[in-house]
Amino acid sequence: ITKRDWSSDVCSSDLIREINQTLGTTIVIVEQNVKASLPVADDVVVLKTGSKVYDGPPDPLQDPVLLMSLF
Fold first, then answer.
1. How far apart (Å, rounded) are the C-alpha atoms in residues 2 and 7?
2. Which of 6, 9, 20, 28 is close enough to 1 for a disulfide, judged by CB 3.0 to 4.6 Å?
3. What is the DSSP string of 1-57?
């Protein structure tokens, strides 16, 4: 999925999950829209000025205070 806003497309999110679950394929999503990408993520890596500032599950990033502290 390229050159489109996959994050607002329910079908694209479903397709990502289906590919991952059916084929066992790892999918890397590079996305600035954190809220849109968290629901399809098993793991999250947050980079800030080229350094990793978070590497873990998506659930803690639902906390807006934690999320803002990373940026």
1. 11
2. 6
3. --SS-GGG-HHHHHHHHHHHHHH--------S-HHHHGGG-SSEEEEETTEEEEEE-
Residue with tokens 């497309």: 9
Reply yes or no on whether the pLDDT at 1 is more than 60: no
Q: What is the pLDDT of residues 14-61, one digit of tens each?
A: 888 888 889 988 888 888 888 778 888 999 999 999 999 999 999 999
Report the distance separating Cα 29 and Cα 25, nearest Å: 13
- Give CA separation, 70 vs 7, 33, 50, 53, in Å: 21, 14, 13, 7
